[in-house]
Amino acid sequence: MISSIVKHSKAFYRYFKIDIPLFILIIILVAFGLLILYSSSGESIDLVYRQLTRLAIAIGVMIVVSQIPPLYLNRAAPALITIGIFLLILVLLFGSSGGGAQRWLDLGFIKFQPSEMMKIIIPISIASILSERTLPPAAITSLKSITVIIIVVSLIALQPDLGTSLLIGASGIYVLFFSGVNIRLVKSTWLNLGLILAILSGSLYVAWNYLLMPYQQKRIITLFNPESDPLGSGYHIMQSKIAIGSGGLTGKGLNQGSQSQLNFVPESSTDFIFSVLAEETGFIGVLFLLFIYLLIIYRCMDLSMRCEDNFSRLLGASLTFIFFTYVFVNIAMVSGLLPVVGVPLPLISYGGSSLLTLMTSLGIIMSIYKHKTPRYIK
Question: Were both Cys, which of 23, 98, 188, 312 would link to 368 (CB 3.0–4.6 Å)?
Answer without folding.
Answer: 312
